[in-house]
Structure formats: C-alpha cells, structure tokens
C-alpha cells in the first residue's frame, strides 16, 4: 500500500464486492466499514460540499489502481475544490491475458493453424496486397511468405478485401442474407477445401497429436480435447477439421455482415475463441464484471460486517450525509470503471436512497452498450450531465496490444473476452456511430444520445476546441495516465 495515499481518500473493494479480504488481490489492505465511517467524519469536519468519486479501469491489479488513484487525487486537489474518493478494486487480469497471448504466439500449433486459416479465408474473401504491382492474393502466398508477413509489427496491414477478385465469395452472398443461411452456404462451399488443406498439412496434424507443455496445454479449451484416452494430443483430427471449418466460416461471415475487426485481427479472434478463449481470460473478465455489480448488492447491514457490500455501505453513508449537508457528487470512471458506475445507477434506480449525481464522466469505457442503455439512458433523473472521452476508431486500431493482436484493449474485449463476437462496447466509435451494421434498437438510442450536447469527445481533438472538450490520448491506458489534456478537461468539469 502506498504511504502517500490516505485511507480517507480511497476505498478498496474486497472479495465479491464485500469488505472481506480478497486473497487474489495484490493489495494487502482491504477497507472496513469503520474506515468509511471515518471518511464521512472527515467530510463533516471539513464541511465538504463537493466530492469526486473515481473508479479505475479493469484489467489492473489493485496496487496499480492505487498508483492511478494517487495521480487522480493529485489532479483533483490541485485543480478543483472537490474532495477526491477513489474506489480501488483488484481486477488484475491484463498481465495474465498478455502472458497467455505471448504463449499462444509462440505455439507451433497455433502458428501453423493460423497459416491454414489465412490461406483459405483470405482466398475466399479476395484478400490481396494493395502495394504489389498487379496485386497478389493471400491464397497464392507460400507458407514461408505468410510466416514472413506474421513477423511484421502489424501482419497483413497492407492487404485489403478485393470484391473484384474471382475467388471472393463475399460478393456472392448479399449482406442482408440471414446468418443461418450464410452459415449453411459457406460450410457447403468450404468443407472440401478445408479437408484438402488439413489433409495436405501433415505437420499441423502431427502438432495436434503431440502432447503440449503444461503452460500451453492449460490454455486449450476443454471442448477441443480429444476423446481418445490413449492419445496425448490436444485435439483429434476430426475435431481439428470441424474447428478449422467453423473458424473459417465465422471469419467470412463476419466480413459479409460487416462485423469484422480487420482481416488479420478477426482471424486471430476466431482461432482464440474456438481453441483458447476458455482459459485466456474470459472467466476473469466475467468475474471482474460480477464484482463491479456485487459491490452494490442490496444489504440490511446485519451480521458479520465483513460480508457487507462496500459500495452499498458507502451509498448508505452518503445518503445520511445528504440529510444534513449540501453536497455535489461527480462520478469518473476509466475503462471497466464505467461498468461499476452503470451498476451503481442500476442499484439506485429502485433503492430508497436519495442520492443523485451531477457529472458522470467516462474515459475509454469498456461497458457494453446494452448495459449503458438500460442504466444511464433509462434513468436520466439520477444525474445531470454526461461526457465520454475515448479514441477515434482510427486511433483505436493503432493502439496495438501485442504482436499477436494488433488492436486495442477495447477491441480485445469486444472480439474475445465478451461471449459473442464483436460485442457492442461503448468506448468503440464504430459501435456508437448509428451506422449499419451498428444500428437499430438500443444502438440508435445510444448513438443519438452521445451525439447531442457534446456528450462524446474523440481523441485527438483540435487545439481550438472549448475547455472540457479536449482529449489527446492515443492509448487506452493513457486517458488517466499520461494524457494531461483529458485530465484537464475532466478537472474543468469538476471545478465548475
């Protein structure tokens, strides 16, 4: 725990959103009801009339959350008259995810399968070079040439879908075709080609039948394990073919329906989803989201106080403070911190607490658009103003997480960690554009809401934009870290 940070400025959320010690956390100290009582005693002593509550991003351990809290507290104390309170919660799966991605990248099986999928899917889509004279399709590349392309910082960056290519099946199936129909047509068309490709690749089949090192074997999805008890391989030949066909169909289908994340990132996403994603980090991502909701669980505050829910107890004390004191409350959330704030609104909508907020401010929000719609959009009386700072889609694509996956963390969440492909994430510009295929139902409502009253700011902004509307971050983590432009905009909103 940092010696610089007072317990009167932060609240550490424990196991399952309670005051219980979380053995998985990297921070030894867990807050207690008594410490929250002392925090509100301090507010009364200082006659505080404005507080700024900050929720750090997910995918970081609590000790890194403390470092971020220190930075936010410094800004709030320096530039505003608000009292800063930071919610710290251990959500440190980012290192696990990145380490797992590195392990997968170095897997001979993964890389060999990657080559096969690139050839088949790329050929069907007409993926061709935009730099070579006469153009050259992916399917015509040798394995050696594809491996060389994979060694580049951004593989296949100079390749695009060519709908005029003779091999491009994408032009044969209209985008409005129902997905089950697309699926059936593609399976029928691709099955023979995939069988030939797998059969011709003896090395891939041998790798599938090899016993993997423990570190690598642990990453494979259990549903892919061979049913032959005598085999030490990771997947049977029958399952390998079925999985490769499914992966390829999904890649092409996502291009037809315009739900892809670029050719190469989509190939990686679909392979990871089919073979590795169960242990890659989705379970931890879901656990983090559950914790964001659990901290606001209903409570009668009886029995063992360590089992009380931290956020709910804080709201109880805040409600009591408001009975006798004038107070303005602003909420700021970065990345998964937006999920915690959405869940707070969901909790308050039917509670008896008379707590409302002035500003709700998101930075690179990782919350789903449907969660945002059913909470903040559905209950506007619980807050007065909203603003979101995030990157343009162009900058988002340039924020490369690792070599294996040259897209941002929000793209990773959308494409891999959420249950469905291309899950709608509020911080991704493409998902809140209101344009096809991201339109209809709640997506239209979200898009319209964000486009009015300067509610969304995309970095990088021009120098002449008004105060409170500037942002300069070019990385997901930069918004609450090294991007003073965004933090200055947030402090402008808080000090108003």
Helical fraction equals 40-55%
Principal-axes geometry comes out as elongated
What's the average pLDDT? 89
- Determine Rg (CA atoms, Å): 25 Å
Distance between the termini: 32 Å
Helix count, DSSP H or I runs of 4 or more residues: 18
The total strand number stands at 9
**Domain count:** 2
* Structural category: alpha/beta
Low-confidence stretches: none
Largest beta-sheet characterization = 7 strands, parallel
Order of helices and strands: EHEHEHHEHEHHHHHHHEHEHEHHHEH
Q: What portion of the residues fall into strands of 2 or more residues?
A: 5-15%
Strand order of the largest sheet: 1-3-2-6-7-8-9
Structural commentary:
- The chain is about 45% helix and about 10% strand.
- The chain folds into two domains: about 10-95 and about 285-495; about 105-280, no CATH class.
- The strands form two sheets. The chain has a seven-stranded parallel beta sheet with strand order 1-3-2-6-7-8-9, sandwiched between helices. The chain has a two-stranded antiparallel ribbon with strand order 4-5.
- The chain starts with 9 loop residues before the first strand and ends with a helix.
- The mean pLDDT is about 90.
- The chain is of the alpha/beta class and about 500 residues long.
- Helix 4 runs antiparallel to helix 10 (about 265-280) and helix 6 (about 180-200) packs across helix 9.
- Strand 6 (about 330-335), helix 13 and strand 7 form a beta-alpha-beta unit.
- The protein has 18 helices and nine strands.
